[in-house]
Amino acid sequence: MGDPADPTGRTAARGPSPRIPAQDREAWRRTYEGTPYRDLPWFSPRPYSWLRRGVESGWIPRGCRVLDVGCGAGTNSIFLSRSGFRTSGVDLAPGAIAAATARAKRAGLSIDFRVGDALQLPYHDAFFGGLVDVGCFHTFPVSLRRGYARELARVLRPRGRYLLSWIARESTGERGPPHRPSLGEVTDAFEREFLFLRAEFEPAGRDRSDAYRALLERRSVPQPPPR
Fold first, then answer.
1. What are phi and psi for residue 74, nearest 5 degrees?
2. For 76, 92, 123, 139, which has the most beta carbons within 10 A of its beta carbon?
3. Cα separations (Å) of 72 from 11, 22, 107?
4. Global pTM value
5. Where do the structural domains in the chain lie, given as residue ranges?
6. CA-based nearest residue to 27, from 113, 93, 98
């Protein structure tokens, strides 16, 4: 497994490891190159409320290593670093990572930002004690969801916590991702690797779509067989 302090020596995931399709990589690259990050509809200068609640409630042990998956321009990563976590952020778009790195530097923070594929994360097994995903999961089609869940489970230690938020199927407006999973679909994707400790529906408000928010925990033993 190598030096646990060095995240770069990624070990192999179980079975064939999928990758995000090339056309999606290119689309995300063009998005951040063609639009200032502050003008993107999902950007917020404030950390997501579910993340603030998770930190204030101690759902993720303060001081542990945390990965912000699909970190975008880094708002949630910066909040985590300021809250005392050893923070990493990964995003498919080089422009997102450039923006996040510059913002962290201006704030005087040391955050490990990397361009990376969320289906092939550049970290050792069990490297993190916590994960944060605000809007990454719902970008994946059904065919890639379980691969994503397996990869997150690989880099998270047993009983590590995972804060997840996604745009709900109930959100029927034009704005938002094309893949809007139901709670049942999310359970189907993650339950083999994770326990669901809580899940909540967040109705739409001003500048906000219907969303689900969940707190998951990495299983320390395999999921029991059906009875």
1. 95, 10
2. 76
3. 25, 19, 16
4. 0.89
5. 22-218
6. 93
The per-residue pLDDT for range 34-44, each reduced to its tens digit, is 999 999 988 99
Mean pLDDT, the chain, rounded, equals: 89
| Cβ–Cβ < 8 Å for 160, 193 | no
3-state secondary structure (DSSP) of residue 66:
strand
How big, in percent rounded to 5, are the helix, strand and coil portions of the chain?
Answer: 30, 25, 45
Confidence of residue 221 (pLDDT cuts 50, 70, 90): very high
Place of tokens 């999961």: 137
Q: Give me 155's structure tokens.
A: 């880099």
- Map residue 17 onto helix, strand or coil: coil
CATH topology for 22-218 is Rossmann fold (3.40.50)
DSSP state of 177: -
Alpha carbon distance 5, 177 (integer Å): 36
Bridge partners (DSSP) of residue 69 are 90
Give the CA count within 13 Å in the CB-facing half-sphere of 105. Answer: 7
Tens of pLDDT, residue by residue over 149-198, are 999 999 999 999 999 999 887 787 777 777 888 899 999 999 999 999 99
Q: Which of 94, 172, 79 is nearest to 134 (CA)?
A: 79
Token pair, residue 212, equals 């689900």
Cross-strand bridge partners of residue 134? 165
What would you report as the CA-atom Rg of the chain, rounded to the nearest whole angstrom? 17
